[in-house]
Amino acid sequence: MYPAVSLSDVTVGYERKTVFTNLSLEIPVGLFAGIVGPTGSGKTTLLKTILGTQSVFSGEVRLMGHPIDRLPPGSIGYVPQLESVDWSFPVTVEQVILMGLYTNKGIWPWPTRQERDKVHDLADRLGIHDCLHHHIVSISGGQRQRAFLARALVNSPKLLVLDEPTAGVDIKTQHDVLHLLGELNSEGITILITTHDLNAVAAHLPWVICFNQGLVAQGKPREIFTSDILTQTYGGEIVIIEYQGHFLVANKMQLHLEEHTGHSA
Fold first, then answer.
1. How many angstroms separate the CA atoms of 261 and 53, rounded?
2. Residues 173-184: pLDDT tens digits?
3. pLDDT per residue over 230-248, tens digit each?
4. Partners of 18 in beta bridges
5. 1-41 confidence digits (pLDDT tens)
6. Strands 66-67 and 56-63
7. For 16-42, what is the HEC assignment?
8. Global pTM?
9. CA 225, CA 240: separation in Å to the nearest integer?
10. What is the DSSP letter of 158?
């Protein structure tokens, strides 16, 4: 079986800046993995490379064994950062989900009854059926995240890529989204997310990729989340605290502030 994602000696960047050089990385089919690293480390550029929207200077990118430019339509579902979306666009939740079909049809389509039924089934499963005819700007952040997740799933992709799916939502919504992604992964979808929340990764994800302009380390969170590896990844001292079988990740400055103020920084 081919890996879901395979990068071989890939160098990527922009006109005047190289982001990462000679990167080789494989993500097996069926994995649920989180990419973590500091701001500016190249996580989003890595996602764009996998999605085929980033120019590659050298090396080869393959998805499910196919060169990135020959991938069958609908193979990848993508959920962008919500902060990058123009919420003034006059569109309903149902229309947002239907947009996921356009990658296959190539033009603005009239959806079939079967396609509309699938949209309604997805909305029902994701808990947004009552919002289908609401303007996207009028619903909550968690509901918007689920709407874009439904859009990514409507073509039954083999690979689901999400950029910061838990940013800007409350703790309960964060837990719900990650739990839902875990359920989707158990059904056979390979899932790759970027996130800044190391504690959410430790609690929910089976695999983590530490990235800072290149691969630092990868593996199970309990094996990878060590002070040495995280300090190397983030360039600052990271502390791991274990309590009753669980562990929390914090930077040393945060702990210093909490110690002197008596509350979370």
1. 46
2. 888 889 999 999
3. 999 998 788 888 777 677 8
4. 13
5. 799 999 999 999 998 889 999 999 999 999 999 999 999 99
6. antiparallel
7. CEEEEEEEEEEECCCCEEEEECCCCCC
8. 0.88
9. 8
10. S
